[in-house]
Amino acid sequence: MDSIQKLQPKEVLRRKLERLFCEAVRRYELIAPADRVLVAVSGGKDSLALLELMAAFRRRRGNFEVEAMHVRLENVDYETDTTYLQAFADALQVPLHVVGGRFEPDAQSERTPCFLCAWTRRKLLFDKAQELGCTKLAFGHHEDDLLTTALMNLTFNGTFATMPARLRMRKFPLTLIRPLCRIPEADLREWAQLQAYRPQRKTCPYEHGSKRTDMSRIFSELEAANPEARYNLRHALEKAGKMVE
């Protein structure tokens, strides 16, 4: 019997995730020697898996540093267990920074609570990354996120673009990276169950019923019609040079 067939399902999935993670790092040149990477940890399955994979990659490479940051906004009605996140990061030997903040909704502005929340979180992450001397800021966006973003841009904006795997900021010396960009969400969901990740106590009140939710459903229908849809769309983004900016 082949040695791979003797492995338990959890080990098979772990090897797959690490392989896809390493492929993304290599293909898009996401991490270089002497980098200092700040991982944005929301407390959801994607960011927890990202932190695990980043810590495992650091153990193998040993030539870059990893830290993590969790943002708590006072006026957003969802909650994570920071004690759990601290224990999770400690087990991986990754320093965790918990930073608080808030934003003020503007009734006179067209900016939605989602926009204000995301903008505030990004600003806090950018500020902390620069304070720590980080060269990279890593987000837990997976392959489905990138592909549905591309479909949303085509449908609503008339452009062909997505969240790139690597984006160099112009205003300050920091590069955004998305090392999970080759990993399907279904694999991350299965991994979260196998690892028994503790879910958030409350979820974001705006996370359902959005255009992204609708586009995710449409993308699932595309995959049902053509199993190669995922590969073809990612390949098209790569050919068009949209995976790196």
Question: What is shown here, in short?
Answer:
The protein is of the alpha/beta class and 245 residues long. It is built from eight helices and six strands; from the N terminus they run αβαβαβαβαββααα. It has one domain (8-239): HUPs (Rossmann fold, 3-Layer(aba) Sandwich), CATH 3.40.50.
Topology of this structure?
Blueprint: H1 9-28, E1 36-40, H2 45-61, E2 65-73, H3 82-91, E3 96-101, H4 113-132, E4 136-138, H5 143-157, E5 166-168, E6 175-177, H6 185-195, H7 211-225, H8 229-239
Parallel strand pairs: 1-2, 1-4, 2-3, 4-6
Antiparallel strand pairs: 5-6
Could you give me the name of the CATH homologous superfamily?
HUPs
* Rg, Cα atoms, Å: 18 Å
What's the CATH architecture name?
Answer: 3-Layer(aba) Sandwich
Identify the overall geometry: globular
Give the total of beta strands. 6
Q: Indicate the mean pLDDT.
A: 91
Number of domains: 1
Percent strand equals 5-15%
Descriptive key words:
alpha/beta, 245 residues, single chain, globular, Rossmann fold, six-stranded mixed sheet, 12% strand, 6 strands
Explain what this protein looks like in three dimensions.
This protein has about 240 residues and is of the alpha/beta class. The protein has a single domain (about 10-240), classed as Rossmann fold (3-Layer(aba) Sandwich). About 50% of the residues lie in helices and about 10% in strands. It contains eight helices and six strands; from the N terminus they run H-E-H-E-H-E-H-E-H-E-E-H-H-H. It has helices at about 10-30, 45-60, 80-90, 115-130, 145-155, 185-195, 210-225, 230-240; strands spanning about 35-40, 65-75, 95-100, 135-140, 165-170, 175. The protein has a six-stranded mixed beta sheet with strand order 3-2-1-4-6-5, with helices on both faces. The longest helix is centred in the first third of the chain and has 20 residues, at about 10-30. The chain is globular. The termini are far apart.
